[in-house]
Each structure stands twice: as structure tokens, then as C-alpha cells.
Specification:
- The protein is mostly helical.
- It has one domain.
- It is 95% helix and 0% strand.
- The protein has one helix and no strands.
- The chain is rod-shaped.
Length: 41
């Protein structure tokens, strides 16, 4: 059971990391969009 817990923890950590990366990528895309809108106006 301990080994299973460790494996689950590892997967959760990996998932959290990738979602964090996706989140910052989304934020960056949003900032680029804001910048483009400011240039347009």
C-alpha cells in the first residue's frame, strides 16, 4: 500500500506541475492578447 501511495503522489505531483505549466502558458497567451489589443486601440 505504501508503494501505491508513493506512486499516486508522484502522479499527482506530475499532474500539478503540468497544470501549473499550462496555467502559466495560458496567462502568457492572455498577456499577449492584451498587448495586441492595446496596440490596436
Amino acid at each position: 500500500a505504501k508503494r501505491l501511495d508513493a506512486a499516486i503522489l508522484k502522479e499527482e505531483k506530475k499532474a500539478a506541475l503540468s497544470s501549473k505549466k499550462a496555467g502559466s502558458r495560458k496567462r502568457k497567451a492572455g498577456q499577449d492578447l492584451d498587448a495586441a489589443e492595446q496596440v490596436a486601440t
